[in-house]
Amino acid sequence: MLTCEIRARSALDAATTAQMYTLFERHYAATTSSRFAQDLAAKDWVLLLRDVGGTLRGFSTLQVYQREHAATRCRILFSGDTVIERNSGASRNWISTGCVWPDACTASSPNCATSGS
User: Fold this and answer.
1) Rounded average pLDDT per 10-residue block, the chain, 117 residues
2) What is the pTM of this model?
3) Strand extents, DSSP E, 1-117
């Protein structure tokens, strides 16, 4: 069983970021830590999947931005890098297994697009 935590990217500590990169480089070829860090810095939120022992088993990075379309302001959620260990027990519906969006990021909140601050 995995638990999901949504964290502002700006709130990630160095240890979690290192765990994310370790997991990422096991699943993607031709990557570097600086390239990973640069991509991560462009994201606003991170979904972290952990097992019962607290070990990171997967993650997804998210960017939230706004655009104008047909005279309507739209909020767009872009999912960036996603890695889930094959034997982690995650299903294809992993995002529905307890991920709760932070209160600071509601449909009416303009702060949702500002890195969780």
Assistant:
1) 87 96 91 93 91 90 86 83 74 53 51 40
2) 0.74
3) 3-8, 45-50, 56-69, 72-84
